[in-house]
Amino acid sequence: MTRTQWMLTALVVAIMLAMPLLLPDFWLSGILGRALVYGIVALSLTFLATYGGFISLAQTMLAGVAGYTVAILAPTAIPAGSNSVSYWLAMPLAIVAATIAGGVIGLIAVRTRDIYLLMITLALAVGFSLFAQSNIDWFNGYEGIRNIVGPEIFSLPFRTHLVFYYVSLIVAALLYLLVLYVVRTPFGLTLQGIRDNPRRVAALGFNVALHRIAAFAIAGFIAGCGGVLITFYNIGITPSSIGMTATVNVLVMSVIGGLGHPVGAFVGAIIFTLIDTFAATIYDRDRFNTLIGLVFLVIVVASPDGVLGIGKRLFGARKSKAKEGQAALH
């Protein structure tokens, strides 16, 4: 990143850290905290789309793999599982499960692109949701698993507004920095080369399939982190929370924010959460879906690269006018 981008990032982080002093608890957990945890799942999709050229609709499924894993292993789960462990062990196991699942999806989808990849990942996502609905022994069917309250941190319940917000913020920031780091490594640069011209990269001796599988595994790791936090936020998990609606919502967040940069996932998540929270209280759910669809359509038509693209063009226009003004003075 440039010096200006680093300064802007530091400013945003400072503002986010100060939010508990400025906003009530509802905004901390119900708006910002929720946007952060869903933004993490959207970040996994943005990572694949921006740097790998893959639009995957399986990211909510991967979040669900982590969510169900931590729920099944949680010591407070209702119904109680027979293999419960502490939250501090359940959380990394859940993330590992999502990472492995991401690699498996990459292995399945590695030789497809565009609409075929979209349909394969959508079929996997819907299939997992339906499997969770029909499985009683492990997933408790339609009712899902509840009372997943998360661990205590410094003797404070995880569901405390302040704890949940800061943990979500720290995890989101670390994963954001992880993506920025990965895309600048030799692996990340090769992945971007594969996105642009896979045949040329293969001719240079790189294993294209292995890089794609690794990218899906990294995206699975990111989605898994988000899935664990979402399960704690919802105090449980059900098949509907990882179904078709949730899958489309994550895609909408990514596209609204902008697929050109990882931060777009969080911008889109904040916009979506604000609309979902406040517009849904004014309109019924069917009208809300129409509203979010219209917002999605307007942004895509006006700016295919999302809200970030609109911001860049406005900033670029102001910068050009400033330069023209300086040139006129000279």
UniProtKB/TrEMBL annotation:
Q: Which CDD domains match?
A: TM_PBP1_LivM_like
Q: Which InterPro entries match?
A: ABC_transp_permease, LivM-like
One Gene Ontology molecular-function label: branched-chain amino acid transmembrane transporter activity
Its GO CC terms are: plasma membrane
Topology relative to the membrane: Multi-pass membrane protein
Claim: Transmembrane helix is one of the keywords in the record: yes
Name the principal localization, coarsely classed.
Answer: membrane
Q: What keywords were assigned to this record?
A: Cell membrane, Membrane, Transmembrane, Transmembrane helix
- Which residue spans traverse the membrane? 7-23, 35-54, 61-81, 87-108, 115-132, 163-183, 204-230, 263-283, 289-311
- Superkingdom of the source species: Bacteria
Subcellular location as annotated? Cell membrane
The identity of this protein, by name, is Branched-chain amino acid ABC transporter permease
State the species of origin: Aurantimonas aggregata
